[in-house]
Amino acid sequence: MEFATFADRVAAIDAESADLEIVAHVRDLFEDAGDDLPVVARFVQGRVFPAWDSTTLDIGPNTCYEAIARAAGTNVAADDVEERLAERGEIGDVAASYDFGGQQGLGAFTGGGGDSTGSGDDLTVREVDDTLTELAAAEGAGSQDRKVDLLFGLFNRCSSSEARYLARLVLSEMRIGVGEGTVRDAIAEAFEVPEDRVERALQVSNDYGQVAQVARDEGVSGLDGIELELGRPVQAMLAQAGTVTDALEEWDEAGVEWKYDGARIQLHHDPGGQTRVFSRNMEEVTDALPEVVEFAAETLDEPVILDGEVVAIDEDGSPLPFQEVLKRFRRKHDVAKAREDVSVRPVFFDCLHAGGEDLLEVPLTSRHERLESVLAAGPDRDQDPAEVDGLSLLWLTDDPGEIEAIDADALAAGHEGIMLKNPDSAYSPGRRGKNWRKRKPDVDTLDCVVTGAEWGEGRRATFLGTFELSVRDGDELETVGKVATGITDEKLEELTELLDPHIAAEEGQNVELEPAVVFEVGYEEIQASPTYSSGYALRFPRFVGVRYDKDPEEADTLERLRNLQ
């Protein structure tokens, strides 16, 4: 498929507001995609790689601006692109406003075919995908220049419409109203397969391109044949807030577990092959957590996929706060030194796959029994579950008093509280349903996206010190306040290092940040306020920590803010 054709079809989707019509457009696009269907199914969502793949383009706004400027002409600089963005407000509109083609440079001869004038063969979807894949693989000395060259080569061959959606794709800002549910429905309609079979295949594979192609080429039997795969992470099942009363009213009895103050992990272990560890967002964190790899090698004797948490512990094995886990969780360098400073241990509460068998559709109680058996591998398989290393215990009860006692024990042990689970529930990747409910002490906090900051003064002049907070409202971010309280100088240094790569613009002491980092922020109350674009303000906001386990798309919403007021 020519990229111009893709861009035109996406423009039609972009102009549509009705959900059913959007699905129909995406359905038609899939029907016409031919061999490019897997790529098209990702691109229309703004994805370059499958959802399970943690590979990123690693392209910041400035890199994109430079490539656009070079393709636009010798009299255009990256600063001009940024200035036009400030006027127009959207990078796709900015890219479409330039007349590309005819600019010479390394990128005009590589990564996209065609000649230096951009007059070669029309750009195709496959060429865009191949070039962006090559771009993502660039690393080491000169890699940044190579990225700019490759991206320039693409823009240099683009029409206005193509440039609009290439820029959005590169910066993960497609925003045409096509979400995962839209793609699921479009696959089902395009290839006449049941929606629930598509849903199951997507849950298992986490690859919309693969599922679209299998649905078209193999139908229902092919979709049913897609299984979990060791080394390919799936989305974590999620919980919503709930009460003991609600749980016992809806279920005959509740499964009760301790809720650990750790970071979610998914362990993929093959005794004869690799052991890999993934975060809640499916980012690989294997190298940062050697203790988990060692635990798997010492404990597990069959291929498994386990869901659990990694918890920081002190010398006595007692749990440490969540912030201590984060010192280890994304560490890429000096892991051995970090391990000396902060020890971690894994605790598992679910088993998704064991011994070649997928267990997603098996009831929770059966999955937990399988979990016990794989963690108690060896001659002493009949040991007390409480003595099985790495196992999160599951109590089944319909007695509110017993649940309160379990909750009290969890808090006394230094954990967050308890989880309530439907004993008969299947494991639903990515779903936040009523089958898992988190119950913990009342805490007034919100997860907010950091969209701006201010440089400090005096001894803090080299640190970002006041942070603008925003919540999600559809595809937009609306401000709710600023936070500067509860942050030490040491933490400010860490936050400045974390946020510096995401600086989009500066004016005096004020800094504009691309949405990339989520803060957990405490507050006393929420007030109506004309000061911030959300219409609300957090009263006495206090920095609690960085939510490294959350993307901006998972931050709290304006709707939740209204409900909390």
TrEMBL record:
ATP binds at residues 257, 264, 280, 309, 349, 432, 438. The gene is lig. PANTHER family: DNA LIGASE, DNA LIGASE 1/3 FAMILY MEMBER. It comes from Natrialba aegyptia DSM 13077. CDD domains: Adenylation_DNA_ligase_Arch_LigB, OBF_DNA_ligase_Arch_LigB. Pfam families: DNA_ligase_A_C, DNA_ligase_A_M, DNA_ligase_A_N. Belongs to the ATP-dependent DNA ligase family. This is DNA ligase. Gene3D superfamilies: DNA ligase, ATP-dependent, N-terminal domain, DNA ligase/mRNA capping enzyme, Nucleic acid-binding proteins. The keyword Metal-binding applies. It comes from the Archaea. Its cofactor is Mg(2+). Keywords: ATP-binding, Cell cycle, Cell division, DNA damage, DNA recombination, DNA repair, DNA replication, Ligase, Magnesium, Metal-binding, Nucleotide-binding. PROSITE patterns: DNA_LIGASE_A1, DNA_LIGASE_A3. One of its GO terms (molecular function) is DNA ligase (ATP) activity. InterPro entries: ATP-dep_DNA_ligase (IPR050191), DNA_ligae_ATP-dep_bac/arc (IPR022865), DNA_ligase_ATP-dep (IPR000977), DNA_ligase_ATP-dep_C (IPR012309), DNA_ligase_ATP-dep_cent (IPR012310), DNA_ligase_ATP-dep_CS (IPR016059), DNA_ligase_ATP-dep_N (IPR012308), DNA_ligase_N_sf (IPR036599). Residues 337-473 form the ATP-dependent DNA ligase family profile domain. Its EC number is 6.5.1.1. It is an enzyme of class 6 (ligase). DNA ligase that seals nicks in double-stranded DNA during DNA replication, DNA recombination and DNA repair. GO terms for biological process: cell division; DNA biosynthetic process; DNA recombination; DNA repair; lagging strand elongation. The active site is at 259 (n6-amp-lysine intermediate). HAMAP family: DNA_ligase (MF_00407).
